[in-house]
Amino acid sequence: PGTFLCGISPPEDEDPDHFSDVTLQSPDHSVFEDMIWPALYNRVPAFERLKVKSFWAGFYEYNTLDQNGIIGPHTDFSNLLLCNGFSGHG
């Protein structure tokens, strides 16, 4: 059998603030049980037998203005273009 990777950002009212990665070292497994697994099973009934091998939590990086990445030149170095806030997607 293969491996399936999935994830979710919890609803804002259920997403606690974390100011250090120390608090993310013990992720809440109920997020998978209560939110991710039901969505997977509803789309693919074969996921009923899904077994979790491992899980992790991390910061999702974006700007708070419009939740998109920021691209632009550095203010002090004209030959440096910055691309930030893509959280691994860019």
Description:
- The chain has a two-stranded antiparallel sheet with strand order 1-2.
- The protein has 90 residues and is α+β, with helices and mostly antiparallel strands.
- The longest helix has 14 residues, at 30-43.
- Helix content is 16%, strand content 9%.
- It is elongated and about 55 Å long.
- The protein is built from 1 helix and 2 strands; from the N terminus they run αββ.
- It has one helix at residues 30-43, and strands at residues 70-73, 81-84.
Summed up, the helix count is: 1
Helix share bin: 10-25%
Bulk shape: elongated
Say how many strands there are: 2
Q: The biggest beta sheet, please?
A: 2 strands, antiparallel
* Gap from first CA to last CA: 30 Å
Could you say which structural class the secondary elements and strand pairing correspond to? alpha+beta
What gyration radius follows from the Cα positions, in whole Å? Answer: 18 Å
Stretches where pLDDT is under 50 for at least 5 consecutive residues are none
Mean pLDDT: 82
- Spatial strand order of the main sheet: 1-2
Order of SSEs, N→C? HEE
Strand proportion: 5-15%
